[in-house]
């Protein structure tokens, strides 16, 4: 999986959202990050899973994502960025974790069709 391009600040945005929406400072909050090589259909991808032990997503939020009314701008922007970058709308999946909090799954294609001069990517 070495060399899989990752949009700058992509993972950071999810971590920031955990602190903004799931951490109240009164209880211990755990965050888990897992990266694995997998296929999405026939496309080799790095699957990034971020889970926390916070309050999770509401059922209403999950049913209405991505929002059409300008709410939840951070996550909606990421969803749109993934579509614009990779040309696919199935690379971001949100759900609630068995840990009790939120689960975010990102599939990042190993060889996206893009201009190599794109500075939005970070190769490490």
UniProtKB/TrEMBL annotation:
Ranges for domain Histidine kinase/HSP90-like ATPase: 10-111
Name the InterPro entries for this protein: Bact_2-comp_sensor_kinase, HATPase_C_sf, HATPase_dom
The name of this protein is: Histidine kinase/HSP90-like ATPase domain-containing protein
Give the source lineage, highest ranks first: unclassified sequences, metagenomes, ecological metagenomes
């Amino acid at each position: 999986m070495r060399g899989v391009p990752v949009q700058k600040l992509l993972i950071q945005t999810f971590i920031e959202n955990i602190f903004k929406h799931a951490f109240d400072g009164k209880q211990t909050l755990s965050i888990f990050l897992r990266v694995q090589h997998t296929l999405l259909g026939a496309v080799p991808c790095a699957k990034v899973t971020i889970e926390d032990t916070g309050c999770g997503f509401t059922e209403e939020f999950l049913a209405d994502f991505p929002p059409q009314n300008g709410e939840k701008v951070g996550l909606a922007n990421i969803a749109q960025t993934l579509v614009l970058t990779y040309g696919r709308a199935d690379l971001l999946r949100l759900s609630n974790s068995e840990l009790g909090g939120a689960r975010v799954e990102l599939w990042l294609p190993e060889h996206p069709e893009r201009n190599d001069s794109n500075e939005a990517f970070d190769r490490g």
